[in-house]
Write a structure and sequence with these properties.
The protein has 570 residues and is mainly α. The chain is built from 26 helices and ten strands. Among the domains are: 162 residues, no CATH class; 60 residues, no CATH class. The strands form five sheets. The protein has a two-stranded antiparallel sheet. A two-stranded antiparallel ribbon has the order 3-4.
Amino acid sequence: MIARTLKPSLLRKLCFGVCLAMAGGIGWAQQGQRAEPVAAVEPKPVGGPLVMRRLTESQYRATIADVFAPDIPIAGRFERGLREEGLIAVGTSHGGMSAFSVEQYDVSARGIAAEVTGEKRRVQFVPCQPKLETVFDKACATRFVNDYGLKLFRRPLSAPERDRFVKVAMAAQQKLGGFHQGLEYALIGMLDSPHFLLRMERAESDPQQPGEIRLDGWSKASRLSYFLTNTTPDAELLRAAAQGELHTEQGLARQVDRLLASPRLENAIRAFFWDMLQFDGFNDLFKDPAIYPAYTVAVAKDAQEQTLRTIVTHLVTERGDYRDLFTTRQTWLSRSLGIVYRMPVATRNGWEAAEYPASSYRAGILTDVSLLALHSHPGRSSPTLRGKSLRETFLCEKVPDPPADVNFSIVQDAVNKPGSTARLRLEEHNDNPVCAGCHKLTDPMGLTLENFDGGGGFRAKENGAELDLSGSLDGKDFMGSQGLGQAMHDNPSVPMCLAEKLYRSAVGRDIPSAEEPFLEYLIGRFQTERFRLPALMRTIAVSKTFYSVSTPVETAPQHTVAIAKKGDRS
């Protein structure tokens, strides 16, 4: 059985009784670990549902940059993404759009369209020009609509769709007087359409398996492109989709290898880890400036970039072992971060490669300011929050939230007392059986990071008292942050969890039990490839399971469409 994250309904039933049962130190993933060899051949696909996924903010911005240009302004604001199963990538296939989102998408659409069709840049973006600005050129308008319709909808427009947008352009010109003003409103309609804002998957009859369905070529191209590049399919991938090449093993593998060799792979890996590490939490993060004067807005921004840059360098540039992210001393620093890390940074503006000295307590991304500060309180560290994040983020174990009636004053009132340490304060919770179970899961890991304060800075003592940095993970004892990093490196649940989250992010949904053999196959391949992330991504991207669907087209989630159509200006 693969390490699994409990569904909310089951989690509520088990609640803290589960934590109490687990307090002996054996995690869910460790309990379910397979000892026998994993199959080297992909299991028969079981098929998943067709999904509709809302573009994330990073995908929206990347798509606009690729369809038009990187300097096209996007004026609208984006709502915070919905998390499901710990990932915004899964939340994009749930729920709908609020009135605020629809309004902001329209703001962005109007600004983009005005820039694209405006007098300064229309020669760059409009593929043809009318003989007279005041006379409607249907052929040119049709070409414009077809060209951008394919790029924005990630498929060719149907004849009714094309005609509708051409009519919008003609009506707008008749009212406003200019041909390019007409194109502007046609483009607004396409940018406001749910066919752009949502990645709507479509199925077709599978000629190789009568009675079965498959993703059409355009849906395959979209799923593949956003997985490996975090942006819309490029011209070559759209060509392959049109020619049916993605339905052949050779054609699909050729496109997968091309995209994996592209510089845009970095964007996909950045987006995945930004989501997995929950860096959207920085939008709400506050640190008391009187306690942490070195923690500034620049530090918060650079802290995220440091971790993502380290991940990309290790996993993409160096093709390193994923597990080594928890022990590596190689990192990147900016001048603002150098102050927090107490390391000199010669580069005034920008980044430089750095290495933590052997005498440093820092090693691996778990000692980065980003993760240390994100999972701390405004004015103090939190072994519990840190331990909880480690369990959930890297081990795929769900730790329940505390009961509503927990008395936090037991811990908070003694924060600044001489001789008081977090370990001593948290021992008070061990006397409460409701709290003890989960604290025994989180605290033994989080307490090993206590020589880093709530802002991520190093400290040798707390309130004048020596820090006890002993800890344990799944029955393995260790000391300090470096011991924690090594324990995470050696824990088999860590790469298992990554494989599970990566696949869940790729398909945008939870994983049913019927697909667990495929997860085991992924993990086996991941291990065979020495835990290289690009190799794992390739295994997913060329698999039959990744594209397999079983839900009839007419049963797609209509509630999402209905909400999304409020923003359709077409």
